[in-house]
Amino acid sequence: MLTLLNLLKDGRFHSGQDLGIALGISRSAVWKQLQHLEAELGLCIHKVRGRGYQLAAPLTLLDPLKISEMAPGWPVTVLDSVDSTNAEALRAIGRGAPAPCLVLAERQVSGRGRRGRKWVSPFAENIYYSLVLRIDGGMRQLEGLSLVVGLAVMRTLRSAGVPEAGLKWPNDVLVGNKKIAGILLELVGDPADVCHVVLGIGINVNMRAADEVDQQWTSVRLESGESCDRNILIAELSQQLAGYIKRHQAGGFSVLQTEWEQNHLWQGRPVSLIAGVNQIDGVVLGIDGQGALRLRVDGVEKIFSGGELSLRLRDDS
Predict the structure, then answer these.
(1) Options 168, 179, 221, 230, the catalytic residue
(2) Predicted TM-score (pTM) of this structure
(3) Is the peptide bond prior to 170 cis by the omega test (within 30 degrees of 0)?
């Protein structure tokens, strides 16, 4: 099927006969493969008598060689389909794959965000990105790491024509109140000694419609008005990540604290912090040197951190 998709990806019409010759199969077999492409990958294929078959829009597929040439030299694996790139990255750690290494996919069938939420992952439209890092030397190198990743994602989006991209504590990148990217870090090993961390990043790139998304969202294409080459965006993201990770390793999160606060869209805003069934209302003061949230609650500054916390704007903000 993917061989057929490569023939169609230019967005031009191709006759059933020409496709059959190129694939060495009958025209009826071409028809069946086209039906599978539509059903399994959710692609729209126009069928016009006398002209043939055409993808509704051209596709630029991920190219590991192109990405490797532009990225920081990490080994790159590109999968056509996977449950989630984070899950595959964790399996790679289990197999003893050397770190750093990068796992990408054209689509995820079980993509996930924080707190077990589904991450909608249509084929060949967005970025599904998981970078494996080895962490030596204990917890200090993990402090604020998800926020560091957010800075790299934000800078990447701004360079791609989304100047309004900003941060929301702890792991989202927004344009206004619309989500454009999310971050999910997963850890294996002993965080006090040697461990591995997977930096999972999902970015809405060329997606223009998604009925399954249960929150406000946007994409690079919707914001910039232009289709984006995901290979170039992935290379830029990798370069940004390499630079920010180097600064974080050298000086800890405190050296990036001010930059993060300057780009936090909800700085000074009234918010509700949700922790399970509990809700804490306060005003965002910023973050501390470890990346924890600082809130003014009933006139008193309080510090909050943890992976199961969720922040929302209050109705009166």
Answers:
(1) 179
(2) 0.89
(3) yes
